[in-house]
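Archive transcription. Copying these from loose printouts into the bound notebook so they stop getting lost. Printout 1 of 2:
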Amino acid sequence: MLKKFSFFTVLVLSLLLTACGDGKKQSQGEPIPIFIEMSQKDTTEVLDLTKQYLAYLTDGRIDDALAMIKVIDGDSIKDVPDELRKKQESSLKMLHPIRYEIDYYVFRFEDDCVLKYSGILFDKEEGDPNPNKVAYYLKPVRRDNQWYLTLADSEDINTINSEIQN
């Protein structure tokens, strides 16, 4: 009986050790995911950048505003390519809202944030069914402890995100 118990114990321990050793091991050179803690300072920095961007738009300083916008290219942050910049500039000049408002922002991680803002095209009376807002999205991204405003879908630099709202 003691032999059976000892054999069974050794077998169970062997299985446990084998099971523990079979887990996927991280090879050298593989990136380790790092999750950051977002602070009030991060929120303030992003909101200040966005307010400056929106102030430029409100003042009609579209070139200055677009100079603040970047795109993500792999692990790099780059200026908006000329063709996309021209599309953005054309869109912003065509509408030229009377003011802009930040609708909401969501911070998850330094590369997983979204900020929605609206351009108010005209003031309207209560009950007026005509749409008067255009919604835009930005993707704040932090690289090397600095925040950048990037296009909302800058993984695909051919995408411009906007929508008309009531």
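Printout 2 of 2:
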Amino acid sequence: MALKINTEVKTFTFRDGQEITLKEPTLLQINAAHSKNKDDIEVIKSLLIDMTEGELDKDSINALPFGEFLRLSECVKGFVGIDLKD
């Protein structure tokens, strides 16, 4: 019987009041994001797509104001410890 472990879930509220659910990424998702991308911003984008189960896509992430992206990246960092590089 396979082990079933519940993942942590966080709700992120955008400054306009919209909310999105972020699910804790699996080790497989983290590894995939790092293997496809070397840039931390692209890793975070990839993880956000996985963590929202596609509710956020690359186009919607790219259209975010930078401040909102930084706030979202802090949520990702809270799950996996990724830091944006200068």
